Amino acid sequence: MDQQGHGSQAPMGVGANVPYQAYPQLYHHQQQQQQQQQQQHLQMFWADQYREIEQTSDFKNQSLPLARIKKIMKADEDVRMIAAEAPVVFARACEMFILDLSHRSWAHAEENKRRTLQKNDIAAAITRTDVFDFLVDIVPREEGNEDIGIPRALGAPAPAGDPLAYYYIQQ
Length: 171
Fold this sequence. Notes:
The structure is a single chain. By secondary structure, the chain is mostly helical. It folds into 2 domains: 1-57; 60-147, Orthogonal Bundle (Histone, subunit A), CATH 1.10.20.10. The chain has helices at 23-55, 66-74, 85-111, 119-128, 152-155; strands at residues 150-151, 166-167. Helix 1 (23-55) runs antiparallel to helix 3 (85-111), helix 2 crosses helix 3 (85-111) and helix 3 (85-111) crosses helix 4 (119-128). The relative contact order is 0.07. Mean pLDDT is 75; it is low at 7-13 and 145-171.
C-alpha cells in the first residue's frame, strides 16, 4: 500500500516501487529534460553555423545548385537582374533553413521514440516554431494519423517494392 492507502505499485520492470500516481510527474520531468537538451542542441547548431559563416572565404562550392536558385529568383516578374553573389547568399540561407528544420523535425521523431523522419515530424516542427508560421498551410499537421498507413485503391494490395504502397488519409 502507498501513502494514500492504495495498492498501486508499478509492476516489476516498469519502475519498481514507484506509485502509478508518480508517473505523470516523472513523464513531465523527462519531457522537460528532453526539451532542454533539444534547446542546447539547437544553440550549438546555430553557434557552429555562425562560426562557419565567419570562417568561409570560398563561396564557389555550394551544396545547392546556383542555376536552379537563380531560375527560381527569375520566376518573379519584378526581378530583372541578379547580382552574382545573390544566389550564393540564397543557397547558404536555404541550406541553413533546411538544416534547422531537419534538426527540429528529428527532435520530434526522437520524442516519439522513432528513428524514421516522417511528414508529421516536419509538420510538428513547423507548428512549434514561430518563424516557420508561413509554412503551416503548406505542410498541414495530420493529428492522429502518423502511424496509420492505408493501402491505396481501397484496400487493394500495392505492387511489391512500390515505394508509395501506402498513403495517409487527411481528416
